[in-house]
Design goal:
Layout (H helix, E strand, L loop, with lengths): L4 E8 L2 E6 L5 E3 L2 E5 L4 E2 L11 E7 L14 H4 L7 E9 L2 E16 L4 E7 L1 H6 L24 H4 L1 E9 L2 E6 L2 E2 L9 E7 L5 E8 L1 E2 L12 E4 L2 E8 L3 E4 L11 E5 L6 H6 L18 H4 L4
Parallel strand pairs: 2-4
Antiparallel strand pairs: 1-2, 1-7, 3-4, 5-6, 6-9, 7-8, 8-9, 10-11, 10-19, 11-18, 12-15, 13-14, 16-17, 16-19, 17-18
Length: 298
């Protein structure tokens, strides 16, 4: 290609999106980079590469999807993503490729008046060198449920449901059947008798034993709603519905999605509901007043 174009590679887990600021789609190394009119970025300051950040601007009027139909914008709408979104910017001119930037998305910003989505992206060096707020000394736990400090796995607590109705931010569902587990967490199967050579019965695993669980109102409060790798915060729930913090992009009746319970950051909930008090990050027994300032030391 004789003219200079820029290629943008975004990766989130096992998903990838490829865009270009050229007026037409660009084929490079067997990959089609989809043209996005208005795609732009600010300058890259090479003089201070350890603190290098760029802002990549997308017009929101475009449907930013990959070949599999995954919506790129939806990753950032709710600002809950446990896996980092990585960016590589390439410059292509006369069939020569130059890497301009490699980093990760650290902050999404939406401007409704300009109808744009801006992604603030930082290099690995910038991420390591930045000054961040240390943890607070507080009674409640500072961890977010299912993050690396909490230690709980979303997949271990999530269950599948089928969406039956959508009314604004309220989603009605039916719980999908799951296989029964014993007290040790092993899957349970029907036991089918089989006669051995002596005519004595032995048993082998048959069909899985299934059950449809029920979940009490409030169980999902402050939990997470997941569809196709995108999470949305759950405000509250009844026995067969959840209320979301904001709209989940692309959701429709008949979708099978995952729900997982939330935590109010208290030691009681951490211990009784999740049996995870060993990783509790708060200080529930700290005094309400500073003893150094409120008492005389004799």
């Amino acid at each position: 290609m004789d003219i200079r174009v820029e290629l943008y590679q975004f990766k989130h887990g096992d998903k990838a999106w490829y865009f270009t600021n050229h007026r037409k789609d660009v084929m490079h190394d067997g990959i089609t980079y989809k043209s996005v009119r208005g795609l732009d970025r600010d300058s890259i300051e090479d003089a201070d590469i350890d603190k290098c950040e760029i802002e990549v601007i997308f017009p929101q009027s475009y449907a930013l999807k990959n070949d599999a139909g995954d919506d790129f914008t939806s990753i950032f709408l709710n600002r809950i993503y446990f896996e980092s979104v990585y960016l590589t910017v390439l410059e292509l001119e006369k069939n020569e490729t130059l890497v301009l930037f490699i980093g990760r998305v650290t902050q999404p910003k939406f401007d409704d008046s300009a109808n744009t989505m801006t992604l603030v992206c930082s290099t690995g060096e910038s991420y390591l060198n930045r000054t961040i707020l240390v943890r607070k000394f507080q009674k409640t736990c500072p961890n977010s449920i299912y993050d690396r400090w909490c230690g709980l796995k979303f997949e271990d607590w999530a269950f599948n449901v089928t969406v039956t109705a959508i009314n604004g931010l309220t989603i009605t569902f039916t719980v999908n059947p799951t296989q029964v587990k014993d007290e040790e967490g092993n899957l349970v199967f029907e036991q089918v008798p089989v006669l051995d050579e002596l005519g004595q019965p032995t048993y082998t695993d048959g069909d899985p034993v299934m059950e449809t669980k029920t979940y009490a109102p409030g169980y999902l409060n402050r939990g997470l709603f997941k569809k196709l790798g995108v999470f949305t915060f759950i405000v509250g729930n009844t026995a067969n519905s959840v209320s979301l913090y904001r709209e989940h992009s692309g959701l429709k009746v008949g979708d099978v999605i995952q729900l997982a319970p939330g935590c109010d950051q208290s030691l009681k909930t951490c211990h009784e509901k999740f049996k995870n008090s060993a990783r509790y990050g708060g200080h529930p027994y700290m005094p309400g007043e500073n003893p150094v300032m409120s008492q005389l030391i004799k």
